[in-house]
Amino acid sequence: MEKIEHTTVSTNGINMHVASIGSGPVILFLHGFPDLWYSWRHQLLSFAALGYRAIAPDLRGYGDSDAPPSRESYTILHIVGDLVGLLNSLGVDRVFLVGHDWGAIVAWWLCMIRPDRVNALVNTSVVFNPRNPSVKPVDAFRALFGDDYYICRFQEPGEIEEDFAQVDTKKLITRFFISRNPRPPCIPKSVGFRGLPDPPSLPAWLTEEDVSFYGDKFSQKGFTGGLNYYRALNLSWELTAPWAGLQIKVPVKFIVGDLDITYNIPGTKEYIHEGGLKKHVPFLQEVVVLEGVGHFLHQEKPDEITDHIYGFFKKFRTRETASL
Predict the structure, then answer these.
(1) What is the pLDDT of residue 65?
(2) How many Å separate Cα 148 from the centre of its chain?
(3) Active-site residue (options: 230, 260, 263, 298)
(4) Is residue 37 included in any domain, yes or no?
(5) What is the pLDDT of residue 281?
(6) CA distance 57 to 60
(7) What positions belong to coiled-coil segments (predicted)?
(8) How do strand 53-57 and strand 14-21 relate by DSSP bridges?
(9) What is the pTM of this model?
(10) Active site residue 263
(11) Residues 192-213, mean pLDDT to the nearest whole number
């Protein structure tokens, strides 16, 4: 880890912390919630050794990047704008792109809005869902799963932060990371995250050092920045109306674990495997479902994920135009 470089880049009105290593074609890794650049630690080192320049920022609101206080500052257009500004600041024209969780959502939209900046995409966990013109996303989740669904619980500013504050941060992070329950996470207010049982012993892929890194960063920064992505969902829906109906037109590989809650949302498996995703992502070339793997697949199975990414991107490497 000591070989990874850490810099701060000014982009789109914020200061963004960026971890990077290696030289060659650029791969941009995007993390999700509750995560940091650190979630890609294995892939950064692996791809540097494979002849790539691997870059993983702390997204807006996370880690050592700035965290504007207003939820209105976390729309998908803000986040995509941050990344375009980052690439411009680094002098990078095009990248290979990898996303996970919220990073996957951002990656889909970066490919839709600025396909000229992306050579190919490997996305994980969260499929592309086209904009529904008749219902806002939070309203759709509420109708499907009820008020206790975690995304609905995250909407009221300060409420879930108070709940989180009653739990040791390291224990909270561990609960998120090692969950193997594929059912929709519903947390009644009467129970809260504070009322969940303590997590079991750490799996082999997650060390005490890892948990301490996350715990220290989130103890310093808080969770509000990351929660504001969820709180801006409906505003993002309003602002992205001009792109309704557009397809994702870059080469794509999609990877998900069969124990991932996102894969087990009703209708998702059919959407992925019966042509729905291909309709909206016409250059989708591969879909991989990892058996017995949960949501944080790139940490749980780092070597396997690296192999999948490398095998896909090497097919397009001759097309790349960007390197550092």
Answers:
(1) 98
(2) 22
(3) 230
(4) yes
(5) 98
(6) 9
(7) none
(8) antiparallel
(9) 0.96
(10) no
(11) 92
Rounded CA gap, 277 and 126, in Å? 11
Query: Two tokens at 95?
Result: 């990248």
CA distance 119 to 319: 7
Omega prior to 34 cis, within 30 of 0: yes
| Confidence grade of residue 194 (pLDDT, cut at 50, 70, 90) | confident
In a domain, 321, yes or no: no
Instruction: Tell me the CATH number at 212.
Output: 3.40.50.1820
| Residue 324 placed within a domain | no
Q: What amino acid is encoded at 123 in this protein?
A: N
CA 92 to chain centre: 21
Q: Active-site residue among 100, 295, 298, 308?
A: 295
Q: Is 148 a catalytic residue?
A: no
Clarify whether 198 is annotated catalytic. no
Active-site entry in 35, 101, 210, 260: 101
Q: 3: helix, coil or strand? A: coil
Per the structure, the complete domain to which residue 72 belongs is given by: 5-316
Residue written as tokens 């009322």? Answer: 195
Residue 253 in any domain: the answer is: yes
Please name the amino acid found at residue 277: L
Number of domains in the chain: 1
